[in-house]
Amino acid sequence: MSQLPPLNTLLAFEAVARRRSFALAAAELHLTASAVSHQIARLEEFLRVKLFERGTQGVRLTSAGESYLQRVAGALGAIGAATDDLRQGVRNSLYVHASPSFASLWLMPRLADFAQACPGISLFLSASPTHSDFAQGQVDIDIRYGGATSAQDLTIEPLFDEPILPLASPAFIERHRLREPSELLQTPLIQSTVSLVQWSDWLPAHGVTPLPDRYALRFDRAQLALDAAIQGLGVALESAVIAGPHLEGGRLAPVFDPAQAVVIRPHQLVYPQRLARRPEVAAFAAWLLDRARATTGIVPLSDDPDRLGAPENTTGLSAA
To answer: Tens digits of per-residue pLDDT, 184-236?
Structure first.
């Protein structure tokens, strides 16, 4: 292992960087401002890099300091979390991160099953649209949307096929009586801006041009787009897997024949290979992949077979 700076210098650095003040950092660490300044000087001497610029309006990080803080803050956070777990008697902890809509609509309904299958694991689940940085040591497993960059030190497992298709509330479908994809151009469309499949992909794939120049509503989360569709505000182009609870509960339905879906595999299980032998990581990965294999993405059909049209798919996009 490479030589590490003294821990107390790193704590002082993180506190000053966060507080932007030697005096406030000193009060937090129960030290004098002079002692904190001395710790920073020791760290800068150890690194041979200047970390702060000192001025009349306080202190600010140099570019080198900003870069160092991004790595160090995560490592200190991981040490703090591990310490808290141990002090509070928490054993076999597992930190999982997932994209928000996947976490709330697919993973959460299955967590009771995981708790029953692995009762000895203490699970911490977080959700955000950004991929986790494993170098910071704060996450063991990341469930990513949009693909993972191939890396020799990562295990990457695709989860399941997801049919992407127009979805709306049954009342909306009944009211608008949509029979052909071209009729969507006269209908309020909901755009999910982060989706890998956009209306600009699906509509031409079903012979619809020109594309709409605006959308009734736009969201940066699949769950929000689905909620808007449930409220009857328009048609959402979303994953039948992520929308599964709403489809099963009758809150949403496919606007057209599910055979018109574009099929992708956007969610992936990702974790560092160095963690593969951790019992908690191995158990969660095995459980997740098993549940993923049981996920079919089958879409319930409408009660009105006359409404469901299936025009020829004239593009190279994959259909269900």
So the answer is: 999 999 999 999 999 999 999 999 988 988 899 999 999 999 999 999 999 99
pLDDT of residue 56: 72
Set out the domains of the chain in order of their start, with CATH numbers.
7-86 (1.10.10.10), 91-161+266-293 (3.40.190.10), 162-264+299-307 (3.40.190.10)
Give the span between the Cα atoms of 261 and 135, in whole angstroms.
Answer: 38
> In this structure, are residues 311 and 207 in contact, taking their beta carbons and an 8 Å threshold?
yes
CB atoms within 10 A of CB 177: 10
Cα-Cα-Cα-Cα dihedral of 227, 232, 312, 293, to 10°? 30
Residue 14 near residue 65, CB atoms below 8 Å: no
Residue bearing tokens 């191995």: 282
- Pick from 196, 193, 280: which is nearest to 239 by CA? 196
CB 136 within 8 A of CB 74: yes
Report the alpha-carbon distance of residue 61 to residue 52 in Å, rounded: 4
Considering only CA atoms, which of 297, 185, 170 is closest in space to residue 238? Answer: 297
The Cα 187–Cα 179 span in angstroms is 12
